[in-house]
Each structure stands twice: as structure tokens, then as C-alpha cells.
Write a structure and sequence with these properties.
With about 450 residues, this protein is mostly beta strands. Helix content is about 5%, strand content about 35%. It is built from 4 helices and 31 strands. The protein has a 4-stranded antiparallel beta sheet. The chain has a 4-stranded antiparallel beta sheet with strand order 7-8-9-10. Strand 19 (about 225-230) and strand 20 (about 235) form a beta hairpin. It is globular, with a radius of gyration of 22 Å.
Length: about 450
């Protein structure tokens, strides 16, 4: 287990030139576990009557998001927006702008993105969004887990895997590629099943040890992160980029406890291409794994070189460094232990999601922060540049939009926002054409093979 320390400490590069940094939980977690007031308890909450009060209850509990939005919920509108490679433009070159997802029924409730398409849950059921069109799935479909080869669907008392082409057509005919019956009355939260978990690629199903009770599970490209019933974190699968959090680059065939987080209750986990993240009960964010594109919010050599190239365009002769100029940052390519990551303006994190090589987080105040690879505008900063530091999406903040949920696709970021009618500005214009439900899906270029 890592020692409890107050700041990260970077070690020298091990063999192969890779850098790692180790960081233990902060003092706030000791206070939390001891039942003493934690730093976030000093936040003042403004209620409808204008009075200010400290949150009551356990020291480590956080108020629900609605406390920070005291006006009547009826005066607020939920909307989903997309940054990055959209399903409409998966066959072309997506711009860095924002796209608005137009609901076809009672509004969008959940989003499950793949690389070239997404499955949406609306008040009318599940719909597939692909190539600018939406197609409704059969009424008995309740949840989805899509990939570029198959989509796993929760249908009544069974879980089924269907080829991508059949899902895009909205026609699930014949026999599925794989299916598994569920116990009576079971309603699992995909990818977690009562006795194992499912992935949207063969072999689809993997059993879990019966003595390992999990309440949540996140799938990466080659690894899995599980959340135990008591808030403990497990990592297994491919580990060559440190994405398991065990301090090594070895793979694990069976779930293994992330000992560096021992004694720290965790309430949410996320997994990306080759990196992972979790949120503690106190709202602290931990990250680990591959940092090639700055997706951990730690100094990245590739990002620094990209920024240096941008600065050199049109610049004059390079000036020599000042004598007292400090050395550059210690670049971190792999972070094999969980590292505590503070956001610039608000440390309390409510939600986190990981894309292929980028990360997004929502704070308790409703701000959206993104960092990592940004070639397709998935960071929402109005450009295609990558970033190795958490940066607030100013476009949402400036328009008075407060983020509620965030879901990262491989090269995209879907965010659900609240808009306060009459207070947070006028209705937002739609920056993308409305998508019509029930129209014929467009053709996808099968030869495109996305790089995770």
C-alpha cells in the first residue's frame, strides 16, 4: 500500500525511458474515515430562502446536485450536447464545434456511444443514431453496450449480442450472435451481470468469482475496473500501460484489489482505452494508466511537443533560457499507481468518464472539465489541440449551462446540461441539423477502422 503523502513525487525514468509517479491519499481521506469534517464540508449551500448552512449528515456525504440548483426543476431544461467525432460525421472529418442532439420523443435519458454510432434511450425507447439518422430498436430493448462489431442489448429476461449492421438497421431478425438468459426478476446494469459481465465483442461473457460482490463495472479496451460493494476497487485484464493501478505493467487474469486505494471508499469507476479513473466518497478524483496524450491530466511529452510546434509557427529566433530558469516538467508516460488529480477551480467531482485517450469530469457545481487527446474537438475547447491539464469547458459555463452527466465515446464527449429558463440565458441555437426518427440509416464506410 502506498504511504499517505500530501503531494505527488516523481521517480526517475525506469528501464525503457518510462516515467511513473506515486501518490498516496491526502489527509482529507483520513479525516473522512475518522468521521471528522472534510474540506468540502466548508462549502456553503444557498437555499431557496437565501440562508446559508453547512451540509448535515456524515462528514463525507455530499449533497445531491439539486441542492446547488435551488430553483424549481420545472423551470429547467435538460439537453444533450456532443463534442468531437459525431455519429453523423464518423465517415468524414468532424469539426471542433458543438452538436446538439435533438430528442424525438420525451427527451434523451441515457447515451451509449461507440465510435461510429450511438444508442440513445428516450421516453419512447431505444434508438440508434448513425450517419445523421435515427432508427428505433424493438420495444423490448432496455439497455445497450455498443461496439464496432456488435451491440449487446438487454431484452426482457435475456442479454443478446447482435451484429452491428443489424442494430444500425433496427431489425433484429433471426438468431443473435450470442445470448444468455437472466435470473427471474433480474435487471442488471450493463456490463455487469448477476454472475459475471458482458463485453460487446467476442467472447461476450466472462464469469466472475462468486465471492466477489461488485456493484459497478467499467470496460477499457483491454482491461476491466470493478467497484466492490464496500467501495473497494479491482483491476484486471491487460496491464502493459499501468491501467490496472497495481504499480506494475503486468496483466492480471483475475480481479485483483487495487491496494493503493485501500481504506478509501470509492463510489464510481471509469475505464478508457488504456487508462482508468475513480471518484472517492469525498468527491476526489484519482487517475492511473497511460498518459501519452495527457489523458491523466499529468505532464505529457507529446502534448508539450505539440504545443511547442504551435508556438513556433510564425515565431522569431529562439531566445536562450534565462540563467535561473527552472527545468521543465518531469513528463509521465505511464502512471501505474492511482494519482490524486485536483481540478483548478473546484475539487469536488460528481462524475467522470474516460474516452480512448481523453477524460471528462463534472463537478458538484455543474462545471465540465476535459483533458487529453483533442484532435477531433472532443475536449470542447473550440480547437483540436490536446491538453495535459484539466480545463473547464468555458463555452458551457459562459452560456449558463450546468453539466449533470458526461459520457465519453472513443473520440467524442456527450454531456447532459441543465438550462435555467429566464436566468441562464436564451435558448441555445441548434448547431447541427435535427435528426429525424424512423428514417433510413445512411451507409457507413466499413473500411474505416478507428484507432482506440
Amino acid at each position: 500500500m502506498l504511504p499517505h503523502s500530501g503531494s505527488p513525487r516523481c521517480s526517475g525514468p525506469p528501464a525503457g525511458g518510462r516515467h511513473t509517479a506515486t501518490l498516496g491519499p491526502r489527509l482529507r481521506h483520513r479525516l473522512c474515515l475518522a468521521g471528522l469534517p472534510a474540506p468540502h464540508d466548508a462549502l456553503k449551500l444557498l437555499f431557496n430562502d437565501g440562508s446559508a448552512s453547512r451540509p448535515s449528515g456524515p462528514a463525507c456525504s455530499l449533497p445531491p446536485p439539486s441542492v446547488f440548483f435551488p430553483s424549481a426543476m420545472a423551470a429547467q431544461r435538460r439537453s444533450w450536447f456532443l463534442f468531437g467525432l459525431s455519429a453523423e460525421e464518423a465517415a468524414g472529418d468532424a469539426g471542433p464545434g458543438r452538436h446538439r442532439l435533438e430528442p424525438s420523443g420525451d427527451g434523451i435519458r441515457r447515451v451509449w456511444p461507440a465510435w461510429s454510432y450511438a444508442v440513445l434511450e428516450t421516453g419512447s425507447g431505444l434508438e440508434v443514431l448513425s450517419a445523421g439518422r435515427r432508427r428505433r430498436l424493438p420495444e423490448d430493448c432496455e439497455a445497450a453496450l455498443p461496439s464496432e462489431t456488435h451491440a449487446v442489448l438487454l431484452r426482457g429476461a435475456a442479454v443478446e449480442a447482435w451484429p452491428r449492421a443489424a442494430v444500425l438497421r433496427g431489425e433484429l431478425r433471426g438468431e443473435p450472435a450470442w445470448s444468455r438468459a437472466l435470473p427471474p426478476g433480474s435487471r442488471p446494469a450493463l456490463p455487469l451481470l448477476p454472475d459475471g459481465f458482458v463485453a460487446p465483442r467476442p467472447p461476450f461473457y466472462t464469469a466472475l468469482p462468486g465471492a466477489l460482490p461488485l456493484r459497478a463495472l467499467a470496460l477499457g479496451h483491454e482491461h476491466v475496473v470493478g467497484l466492490g460493494a464496500a467501495g473497494e476497487v479491482y483491476g484486471w485484464g491487460g496491464g502493459r500501460h499501468g491501467q490496472l493501478g497495481h504499480g506494475s505493467l503486468e496483466s492480471e487474469q483475475q480481479p485483483r484489489l487495487v491496494e493503493a486505494l485501500g481504506g478509501l471508499p470509492v463510489r464510481a469507476v471509469a475505464a478508457g482505452g488504456w487508462h482508468s479513473a475513480c471518484i472517492s466518497d469525498g468527491g476526489d478524483l484519482y487517475v492511473w494508466g497511460w498518459n501519452e496524450s495527457g489523458q491523466l491530466g499529468l505532464p505529457s511529452r507529446a502534448v508539450a511537443e505539440e504545443q511547442a510546434e504551435d508556438e513556433d509557427v510564425g515565431a522569431g529566433p529562439e531566445e536562450p533560457p534565462l540563467p535561473e530558469e527552472p527545468p521543465g516538467p518531469a513528463f509521465i508516460s505511464i502512471q501505474a499507481f492511482p494519482a490524486l488529480l485536483d481540478l483548478p477551480l473546484e475539487p469536488v467531482v460528481a462524475a467522470v468518464s474516460c474516452g480512448s485517450r481523453h477524460t471528462a469530469a463534472v463537478t458538484r457545481g455543474g462545471d465540465l472539465y476535459t483533458w487529453g487527446w483533442g484532435k477531433y474537438g472532443q475536449l470542447g475547447h473550440g480547437a483540436r489541440a490536446s491538453c495535459d491539464q484539466p480545463r473547464r469547458v468555458e463555452q458551457l459555463w459562459a452560456e449558463g449551462l450546468r453539466a449533470q452527466e458526461v459520457v465519453c465515446g472513443p473520440w467524442s464527449t456527450y454531456v447532459c446540461v441543465l438550462q435555467q429558463g429566464g436566468t441562464w440565458g436564451s435558448p441555445l441555437p441548434c448547431t447541427a441539423p435535427a435528426l429525424q426518427a424512423g428514417t433510413e440509416p445512411g451507409r457507413c464506410q466499413e473500411e474505416l477502422s478507428p484507432r482506440p
